[in-house]
C-alpha cells in the first residue's frame, strides 16, 4: 500500500468530528487567503475549501488555481472545492485536473461537486443552462466519467448530457479521490446516497431539521444501492463566530464559547461529523481551534 493509500484511508476514517475552514471568503486578497490556509493547516483544521463563483458582483478567486497555489504552501491539511459548478468544466477535463492536483498535493484533494445552482452565472459565461432534471442527469453522468477515467481507459460513454470517445488519462490516481455532493432535492439526495463519498449541504439554505430529514434520504438511498451508509461523510457548511454580542440565525452559529459549543454539538449529534465553519480571520480560526474544537470533541467523544 502506498503512502497516499494510507493517507486516504485515514481521511475517510469517520471516527470523531472534523473541522474545515475557508468556504465562501469575502474578497480576493492573496495575502489574506494564504494566512487563512496556513493558519488552518497549523492549527489542526482538517480541510480548507473554496467556493466556485466565477461570475459575481464581488471579487472572487477561481478555486482550482487558488487551491493549487495553497497546496504548495501547506503541508497536511486537505484542500477542497465547495462546491464546483458542473457547467464550468467538462467532466473529462475535470478528471485530469483532479488527478494532477491530487498527485501534486500528496493526496489531499476533496472534490465538492454541485449540479449548478446559479443559472445566471453560467448564462453570463455562455455555458450550458440545464433544467433541474437535466442537472441531476448531468451530475450522474459526470461522476461516471470521472470514476471511469480514474479507473483506467479508454472510456467510451454517450449520455444525455455528456459524451466521451476513447478518452483516457495518464497517470491514474493512486487512490480513490473523494467526491462530495452539495445536493438538496429528492433526486439529488438519492444520487448522493447511490454514488457519492460525501454530502455537503449549506445551512442557511436549509435548517437543521430539514438537514436531518435529507440525511435520512441519503442514507436510505445508500442502503438501497447496497452501500454502507456510514461510508458517506455527512458534512455541513455554516458560518461560526465566537461573539457574545451576536445572536445565531439560520446559517450562522454564534455567541459565547459555551453557546457555540452547544450549537455545534447539536449539529454533530444530528449526524454531521465534518463541519465547515467559514471563519473569516486568523484570529477567529485560533479561537475555534483552541477553545471550541476541544470542547466539542469532549462532548461528543
TrEMBL record:
Acidic residues bias (residue ranges): 1-13
Pfam family for this entry, one: Bac_luciferase
InterPro entries recorded: F420-G6PD/mer (IPR050564), Lucif-like_OxRdtase_Rv2161c (IPR019921), Luciferase-like_dom (IPR011251), Luciferase-like_sf (IPR036661)
Matching Gene3D superfamilies: Luciferase-like domain (3.20.20.30)
UniProt region (Disordered), positions on chain: 1-21
Keyword Oxidoreductase in record: yes
Lineage: superkingdom: Bacteria
One term of GO molecular function: oxidoreductase activity, acting on paired donors, with incorporation or reduction of molecular oxygen
Keywords assigned: Oxidoreductase
Domain Luciferase-like span(s) in chain numbering: 25-243
N-terminal signal peptide: none
NCBIfam families per UniProt: F420_Rv2161c (TIGR03619)
Name of the protein in its database record: Luciferase-like domain-containing protein
Source species of the chain: Actinokineospora bangkokensis
Amino acid at each position: 500500500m502506498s503512502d497516499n493509500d494510507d493517507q486516504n484511508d485515514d481521511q475517510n476514517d469517520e471516527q470523531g468530528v472534523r473541522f474545515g475552514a475557508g468556504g465562501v471568503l469575502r474578497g480576493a486578497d492573496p495575502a489574506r487567503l494564504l494566512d487563512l490556509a496556513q493558519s488552518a493547516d497549523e492549527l489542526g483544521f482538517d480541510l480548507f475549501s473554496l467556493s466556485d463563483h466565477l461570475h459575481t458582483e464581488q471579487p472572487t478567486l477561481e478555486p482550482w488555481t487558488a487551491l493549487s497555489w495553497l497546496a504548495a504552501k501547506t503541508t497536511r491539511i486537505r484542500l477542497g472545492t465547495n462546491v464546483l459548478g458542473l457547467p464550468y468544466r467538462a467532466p473529462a477535463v475535470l478528471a485530469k485536473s483532479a488527478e494532477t492536483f491530487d498527485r501534486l498535493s500528496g493526496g489531499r484533494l476533496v472534490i465538492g461537486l454541485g449540479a449548478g445552482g446559479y443559472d445566471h452565472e453560467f448564462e453570463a459565461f455562455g455555458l450550458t443552462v440545464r433544467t433541474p432534471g437535466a442537472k441531476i442527469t448531468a451530475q450522474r453522468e459526470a461522476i461516471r466519467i470521472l470514476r471511469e477515467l480514474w479507473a483506467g481507459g479508454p472510456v467510451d460513454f454517450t449520455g444525455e448530457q455528456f459524451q466521451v470517445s476513447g478518452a483516457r488519462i495518464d497517470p491514474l490516481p493512486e487512490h480513490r479521490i473523494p467526491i462530495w455532493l452539495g445536493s438538496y432535492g429528492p433526486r439529488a439526495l438519492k444520487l448522493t446516497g447511490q454514488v457519492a463519498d460525501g454530502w455537503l449541504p449549506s445551512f442557511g439554505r436549509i435548517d437543521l431539521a430539514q438537514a436531518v430529514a435529507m440525511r435520512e434520504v441519503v442514507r436510505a438511498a445508500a442502503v438501497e444501492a447496497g452501500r454502507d451508509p456510514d461510508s458517506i461523510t455527512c458534512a455541513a457548511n455554516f458560518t461560526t463566530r465566537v461573539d457574545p454580542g451576536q445572536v445565531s440565525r439560520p446559517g450562522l452559529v454564534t455567541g459565547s464559547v459555551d453557546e457555540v459549543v452547544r450549537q455545534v454539538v447539536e449539529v454533530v449529534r444530528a449526524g454531521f461529523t465534518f463541519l465547515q465553519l467559514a471563519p473569516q480571520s486568523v484570529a477567529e480560526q485560533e479561537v475555534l481551534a483552541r477553545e471550541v474544537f476541544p470542547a466539542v470533541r469532549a462532548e461528543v467523544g
